[in-house]
UniProtKB/TrEMBL annotation:
Residues 1-44 are annotated as: Disordered. GO terms for molecular function: ATP binding; ATP hydrolysis activity. Keywords: ATP-binding, Nucleotide-binding, Transport. This is ABC transporter ATP-binding protein. It comes from Paenibacillus polymyxa (Bacillus polymyxa). Residues 1-34 have a biased composition (Polar residues). Gene3D superfamilies: P-loop containing nucleotide triphosphate hydrolases. Belongs to the ABC transporter superfamily. Residues 46-273 form the ABC transporter domain. Pfam families: ABC_tran (PF00005).
Length: 358
């Protein structure tokens, strides 16, 4: 038989051996994107505790809790109407929570907004810049609103976002990526400890996305806490240390990207002969969940390459060996088992029941 551990592109390790030997040498190909940084001991910059928001008689946000640490990139994912934008607006005091507390560097955003917001730089939705002014003039304008921001600080943020060659050009001549960087420069003027970015790569080409990713990592490496809201799940998987998944106003999961993906059930593709007898064993196992919408949850190349007789299941890896043993004892030939580690996108679709991202 052949047992494979496949990534989302269908590649993996194949071993040819007897059923019993192959089970003992079953490999798991780790395809989880993660920065690998350990920020568990860093100070908490943003703390959201049991936050609720009611509008009229409808509860929009239900008991949301998470925190963001210094030097960490934290992803915030949610489908359309999940409450993602409402939560972000509460973080920056644009609206008030009905219950719960939001603190930034120990300051309560609701009770002491001036002190709390002093530590926040944010771009909510689109950067607010004036196209008829130069980049420098825009930054001068916003610097006047913040105490302690002088010309030297403007030069520092311009250099940081790499706009020094174009900073004296009109913003109307800027590309979308340059406008995004100018918006981030504006958000950094006050030396915030928390940077909130809503869809920072929206509309950028692949090169611009890569540059933005590198820039955000640079900020985190300098110790800044970065909160990123995005609909690009593959990008979040590459970029973030931890994520929160929100749906219908409730946080479904909070944790490290690698941790969340690896601790949830994996998908396994079975090649069995006779198929019907093997299928019956899988269907009767309490450890197996049958997948009927494989084309939605698994990469097309894997589905197409598995053949018409393939059986798609979801289960914990630890139960694969015992099922292979059970099938072998029942006279069923296990031609192959391909384990597929879920991506963040697949985990998201499962948790949110396929809802569309904002």
């Amino acid at each position: 038989m052949s047992i494979q551990s496949a990534d989302k592109n269908g590649t993996g390790i194949t071993e040819n051996s007897t059923s019993r030997d192959a089970v003992s040498s079953f490999h798991s190909a780790n395809q989880v994107g993660s920065t690998g940084r350990d920020r568990s001991n860093n100070e908490t910059v943003l703390s959201v505790q049991h936050v609720k928001k009611r509008i009229k008689r409808k509860m929009i946000i239900h008991d949301v809790t998470f925190d963001v640490r210094a030097g960490e990139i934290f992803g915030f994912l949610g489908p359309n109407g999940a409450g993602k934008t409402t939560t972000i607006r509460m973080l920056v005091d644009l609206i008030k929570p009905t219950e719960g507390t939001i603190t930034v560097c120990g300051h309560n955003v609701n009770r002491d907004p001036e002190q709390a917001l002093r530590h926040i730089g944010s771009i909510v939705e689109n950067p607010e810049v004036y196209s008829y002014l130069t980049g420098w003039e825009n930054l001068e304008h916003f610097a006047r609103m913040q105490p302690g921001v002088d010309e030297q600080r403007i030069r520092e943020v311009v250099e940081l976002v790499r706009l020094d060659r174009r900073i004296h050009d009109k913003v109307s001549t800027y590309s979308l990526g340059m406008r995004q960087r100018l918006g981030i420069a504006q958000a950094l003027l006050g030396r915030p400890k928390l940077l909130i970015l809503d869809e920072p790569t929206n509309g950028l080409d692949p090169k611009g996305i890569k540059e933005m990713r590198a820039f955000i990592r640079l900020l985190a490496a300098e110790g800044m806490a970065v909160f990123v809201s995005s609909h690009l799940l593959s990008e979040i998987q590459l970029l973030c240390d931890r994520v929160a998944i929100i749906s219908r106003g409730k946080v479904l999961a909070v944790g490290g990207v690698r941790e969340l993906v690896e601790t949830h059930s994996h998908m396994a593709v079975w090649q069995l002969e006779p198929r019907d007898q093997g299928l019956a064993i899988l269907q009767n196992s309490p450890h197996v969940q049958m997948i009927t919408n494989a084309d939605e949850l698994i990469d097309d190349s894997i589905v197409a390459g598995s053949g018409a007789d393939a059986i798609f299941t979801e289960m914990d890896e630890e139960h694969i060996a015992e099922l292979v043993t059970q099938m072998t004892a029942s006279g069923i030939s296990v031609k192959g088992v391909t384990k597929i580690n879920p991506t963040l996108e697949q985990l998201f679709l499962k948790m949110t029941e396929g809802e569309i991202l904002e």
